[in-house]
């Protein structure tokens, strides 16, 4: 079963203890979050059981032995990872993963040094996000935006190399009150490089999906610059 963002939990834990949450794929790639009152909290990237820490934040008294405190962890297709407190609009700790993990299927939790108590439920009370993870769009490098997705927040979709949008350089989708994303009905289209000065090819230019290539007539060979032709 896929675990969707956000992951929300409550923990009651003495300030001398450490709270550990790990969100993994079946291949043990994912994210580890540590909440530590006595020093600093962190976000770590898990890759085949090995953890590398990429974000830290000084968090005195973030946990309490007297009461449950509620937290959320969000992650996105665009790579943003955030950890926040219940009721906060913005994460107190965040990082952008250049190789995002989205197919989370396993959630692990524990405390260290002292016993703690966890609570989990299916509601999103205290989570500020309005929209779910934005959809991907063909021939783009998006979505580019950070979770949680607030009302009115924009996600951009820059076109992949070799593609363009007629109305501009970037497609934008906006988070709406019903939790959906606006769809402008525009797409990134292939650029026909051959339509402009023959793609700088000295002889034949052939347009391909997202790119193009040059070729030479019989009796010629393509030079190392991949554009010029020399006689054989």
From TrEMBL:
Protein encoded by which gene: LOC118418109
Organism domain of life: Eukaryota
Q: Which intervals hold domain Sushi?
A: 129-190
Family annotation (Gene3D superfamilies): Complement Module, domain 1, Laminin
**Record SMART domains:** EGF, EGF_CA
* Alphabetical UniProt keywords: Disulfide bond, EGF-like domain, Repeat, Sushi
Q: What is the lineage of its organism?
A: Eukaryota, Metazoa, Chordata, Cephalochordata, Leptocardii
| Entries under InterPro entries matching the protein | EGF (IPR000742), EGF-like_Ca-bd_dom (IPR001881), EGF-type_Asp/Asn_hydroxyl_site (IPR000152), EGF_Ca-bd_CS (IPR018097), Methyltransf_FA (IPR022041), Sushi/SCR/CCP_sf (IPR035976), Sushi_SCR_CCP_dom (IPR000436)
Has UniProt tagged this entry with the keyword Translocase?
Answer: no
Q: What is the recorded name of this protein?
A: Fibulin-5-like
Question: Ranges for the EGF-like domain?
Answer: 190-230
One GO term in the molecular function aspect is: calcium ion binding
What is the source species? Branchiostoma floridae (Florida lancelet)
